[in-house]
């Protein structure tokens, strides 16, 4: 089976990639499968910079094609925050509940019509000797005043997806994977990268 390495140690994110890639016939491995791989400090100023940094660092270390993503929540009333700091918005510890509480507190006086937001994802694909490409996707919605639903992870319980009329955490995985920012970035990756790999004679790393 073809193998793809995702540069993440986030179990929730890893599960989303597994659902997406397994359906396409790929065996997914993450940095959790490579304990010797060092943590990569996200020093970039944008989603794009961080995704490229993670993909290239892991690809150089492992000698295989690696896909890395950097993604997060952008809230218009907060000037785009939490943005690249989404996973650690409430502090250095990656605590989903604390992050949600901070966003809700900052929006407590903001009316529903002004709570517009989006999830945004940038995927970077780094191939040894083949350079790096990026692909982006987004999902529009707004921030709810309280949590709804028990699925997903991160900010999903308070993110109301406009096109589904439900919070992300109220969606089944299959529903979320049709409209999520990560799925949409992956669609672009599939449409352009796989075609170019075939033309150039490259193949996905084999397990």
UniProtKB/TrEMBL annotation:
Subunit structure: Homodimer.
Biological role stated in the UniProt entry: Pyrophosphatase that catalyzes the hydrolysis of nucleoside triphosphates to their monophosphate derivatives, with a high preference for the non-canonical purine nucleotides XTP (xanthosine triphosphate), dITP (deoxyinosine triphosphate) and ITP. Seems to function as a house-cleaning enzyme that removes non-canonical purine nucleotides from the nucleotide pool, thus preventing their incorporation into DNA/RNA and avoiding chromosomal lesions.
NCBIfam families per record: PRK14822.1 (NF011397), RdgB/HAM1 family non-canonical purine NTP pyrophosphatase (TIGR00042)
Cofactor: record remark: Binds 1 Mg(2+) ion per subunit.
Lineage of source species: Bacteria, Bacillati, Bacillota, Bacilli, Bacillales
Reaction equation(s) it catalyzes: ITP + H2O = IMP + diphosphate + H(+); dITP + H2O = dIMP + diphosphate + H(+); XTP + H2O = XMP + diphosphate + H(+)
Binding residues for Mg(2+): 41, 70
Protein name as annotated: dITP/XTP pyrophosphatase
Protein species of origin: Mesobacillus zeae
């Amino acid at each position: 089976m073809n193998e793809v390495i995702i540069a993440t140690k986030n179990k929730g994110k890893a599960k989303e990639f597994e659902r997406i890639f397994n359906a396409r016939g790929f065996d997914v491995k993450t940095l959790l499968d490579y304990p010797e791989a060092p943590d990569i400090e996200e020093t970039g100023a944008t989603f794009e910079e961080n995704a490229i940094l993670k993909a290239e660092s892991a690809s150089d270390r492992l000698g295989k094609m690696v896909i890395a993503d950097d993604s997060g929540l952008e809230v218009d009333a907060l000037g785009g925050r939490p943005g690249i700091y989404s996973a650690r918005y409430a502090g250095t510890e990656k605590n989903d509940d604390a992050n949600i509480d901070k966003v809700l507190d900052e929006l407590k006086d903001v009316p529903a019509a002004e709570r517009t937001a989006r999830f945004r994802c940038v995927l970077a694909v780094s191939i040894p000797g083949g350079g790096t490409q990026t692909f982006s996707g987004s999902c529009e919605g707004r921030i709810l005043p309280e949590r709804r639903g028990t699925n997903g992870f991160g900010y999903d319980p308070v993110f109301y997806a406009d096109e589904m009329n439900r919070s992300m955490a109220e969606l089944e995985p299959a529903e979320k994977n049709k409209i999520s920012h990560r799925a949409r970035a992956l669609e672009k990756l599939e449409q352009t990268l796989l075609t170019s790999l075939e033309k150039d004679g490259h193949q996905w790393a084999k397990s």
